């Protein structure tokens, strides 16, 4: 279930050390590995779910919102690395990871709702309600996070270590 993935993901941050290390690893290494192959494969899987959900009237608006989020993450990834300078790219890795994670969780919720509807699950109404909540209250947050990434805001990178 989605809750288990979320809890495990939160524990991974503790195991790895810090939120910032996880974010730098995601934006600085994982999305770039093998020429971005893993990121593309993930995007393809998300797009497949979007395509299936778009055909279901009840889920079509959510499919559209997830498609926009996925596109926005791609745009932010390219913007972060537009100069090829790792220090500049990673200056806003934390908001990037937050947006990336919210996009993946939105995908999981859409897939859960799609499966529940297709199987005629008795709990489909609850799953769709939880998904809708996430799409209405959580997914919009990625806009603010990705604005920072796309603008390549330098405030974090410009502060000297002594400031901390």
Automatic annotation (TrEMBL):
<dbReference type="InterPro" id="IPR052166">
    <property type="entry name" value="Diverse_Acyl-CoA_DH"/>
</dbReference>
<dbReference type="InterPro" id="IPR036250">
    <property type="entry name" value="AcylCo_DH-like_C"/>
</dbReference>
<dbReference type="Pfam" id="PF12806">
    <property type="entry name" value="Acyl-CoA_dh_C"/>
</dbReference>
<feature type="domain" description="Acetyl-CoA dehydrogenase-like C-terminal">
    <location>
        <begin position="44"/>
        <end position="159"/>
    </location>
</feature>
<dbReference type="InterPro" id="IPR025878">
    <property type="entry name" value="Acyl-CoA_dh-like_C_dom"/>
</dbReference>
<protein>
    <submittedName>
        <fullName>Acyl-CoA dehydrogenase</fullName>
    </submittedName>
</protein>
<dbReference type="GO" id="GO:0016627">
    <property type="term" value="F:oxidoreductase activity, acting on the CH-CH group of donors"/>
</dbReference>
């Amino acid at each position: 279930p989605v809750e288990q993935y979320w809890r495990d993901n939160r524990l991974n941050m503790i195991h790895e050390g810090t939120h910032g290390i996880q974010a730098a690893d995601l934006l600085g290494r994982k999305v770039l590995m093998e020429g971005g192959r893993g990121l593309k494969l993930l995007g393809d899987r998300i797009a497949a779910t979007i395509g299936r959900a778009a055909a279901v009237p009840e889920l079509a608006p959510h499919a559209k919102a997830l498609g926009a989020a996925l596109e926005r993450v791609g745009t932010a990834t390219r913007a972060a690395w537009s100069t090829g300078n790792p220090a500049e790219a990673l200056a806003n890795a934390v908001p990037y990871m937050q947006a990336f994670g919210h996009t993946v969780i939105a995908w999981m919720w859409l897939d859960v709702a799609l499966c529940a509807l297709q199987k005629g699950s008795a709990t489909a109404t609850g799953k769709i309600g939880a998904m809708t909540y996430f799409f209405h209250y959580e997914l919009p947050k990625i806009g603010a996070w990705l604005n920072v990434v796309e603008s390549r805001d330098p405030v974090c990178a410009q502060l000297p270590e002594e400031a901390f």
